[in-house]
Amino acid sequence: MSTIAAATFSHELGLAGIVLSVALGLLAAWRAAAGGRIGAIVLVFIAVAFAWSAYATSNWSDAYQALVGLLGAVAFWVSPSYLVGAMKEPWPANRQAAYFTLLGIFTASLFALGEPWSLIALWVAVEATTLSSVALVALTPGAHPFEAAWKYLMLAGMGGLIALAGVILVSGGSPGGAAVGAVMLLVGFGAKAGLVPLHAWLPDAHSQAPAPVSALLSGAELAGILWVLHTGLQRVGLLLHGAAWPADLLIALGLLSLAVGVGAMAGQRNLKRLLAYSSVEHMGVIALGMGFGGIALLGALLHVITHGIAKAQCFYVAGTIQTRYGTVDEEKIGQLHVGMPWGSGGLMLGLAALAGVPPFGPFFSEWLVASGGLARSTTAPAAVVMLALLALGFIAIAYRAPRLWYQPAGSARLSPEGAVEAVPAVVLSVLLLLSGFAVPWMLHWPMPH
Questions:
Q1: Handedness of CA 152, 197, 108, 427 (dihedral sign)
Q2: Which class for 423: exposed (0-12), middle (13-18), buried (19 or more C-beta within 10 A)?
Q3: pLDDT score at 294
Q4: Which residues contact 2 (CB under 8 A, 6 or more apart)?
Q5: What is the mean pLDDT of each run of 10 residues along the chain (449 residues)?
Q6: DSSP category for residue 242
Q7: Are residues 214 and 128 in the same domain?
């Protein structure tokens, strides 16, 4: 396949993913169970097509969109049973219809983040992800989800306005405007991606959202927004003739996010909040890789994929735990392997991957980010701090996770694990195990331009 033909196929496939996601959401809104299953099957085919395109062309955008297709497929697959069993009462039919419609729009907007569009068009796609995901969080029954959605809307909405100003300044083409625009892009898109100090919305929104939505938020949306930020900063670099200070700001935000995320993880009893702060940590790793450049940028792009699979695995299993046990409070969950043999195994693999245990993919992508930082004297101190913080993050997960398996189960409902919940855990576990072996091949991919 020629380069032009491959680019055309990838673009047409992206448009198909956007249109079909919306259509599948509407279908599932009409027939929840059947529509969810059909949506999952179609999105699996889209994910496979993007994976093939990524293999044929070594295109990082295609790899990201393959991840979106995969995580979207699992979201459509598990959502019908989650909406029926996660709460004390099933969601009303009209609320379920709204959920699936918004899920289709959210998935479509995530596909759009990987398209080679203009910066203003990508900003529109980012706003679509924000608005649809805010609505999905607010849709969850209860007062706490609405409060979390409001906080999310305020901070991310402010970030969107700042990012728009940055896009306008960068698109103007003047070096002075590009310099101011770079700061605005970092602040605006950084707020939407959960980078500290504008991350306050993330733990609440991700812990209160339906688990399938949390998986897409943490596994695909945050990293996709950082991808858009990287695209914007590349264009700024051309206008500023390779000035180093935007990368320095990205490194500072990355270290701050890593420190805050790791520091908050050890004290979290709520499994979904633990995973949310882990997302803050790992967005810090991706930001550091983009700031370090070189081989570290390859590590950051790899981390988008490897972290996305691991985080989605954990959030999907957390949703199954909420369905089976009625809670995600670690103090009220025990003997997880008894009630959920497949899911508990998947959760163990996912947490191990997030902790940076080899041979899972996140270990290698984090190693590449650190190697790129250590290769330059100007970034070596930041890379050393990064490694120390990652070690603390490993300790935090190693401290919190074992009680899920070994403490008494108490009054938890040990319902049998169904095939609907087990299939995604098995599929994502296989991908987690394969992710580490895929790194050597992906290392030969060219840098995105």
A1: negative
A2: middle
A3: 85
A4: none
A5: 60 84 89 85 91 81 90 90 72 87 94 88 93 90 82 88 91 79 89 84 83 88 88 75 75 92 84 88 92 88 89 86 76 74 85 88 90 91 94 88 71 62 83 78 63
A6: S
A7: yes
347 and 392 fall within a common domain: yes
Quick one: 266 and 334 in the same domain? yes
Q: Which residue has the tokens 């990287």?
A: 230
CA-to-CA dists, residue 343 to 231, 291, 420, angstroms: 37, 36, 11
- CA terminus-to-terminus distance, the chain: 20
| Calculated CA dihedral for residues 281, 282, 288, 289, nearest 10 degrees | 170
Per-residue confidence (pLDDT) for residue 338, from 0 to 100: 74
Q: Which two tokens stand for residue 26?
A: 């509407």
pLDDT recorded at residue 23: 92
On whether both 297 and 424 belong to a single domain, the answer is yes
What are 398's two structure tokens? Answer: 């190693």
- Model pTM? 0.89
Domain housing 195? 119-243
The pair phi, psi for residue 270, each rounded to 5°, is -80, 120
- Which of the listed residues 243, 274, 297 is the one where a domain comes to its end? 243
Q: Across-strand partners of 329? A: 270
Let me know whether 235 and 249 are in one domain. Answer: no
In DSSP terms, which residues pair with 270 in a beta bridge?
329
**3-state secondary structure (DSSP) of residue 329:** strand
Q: How far apart are the C-alpha atoms of 111 and 198, rounded to whole Å? A: 25
Both tokens of 53, joined, read: 């395109």
pLDDT score, position 105: 94
Residue 335 structure tokens: 């003997």
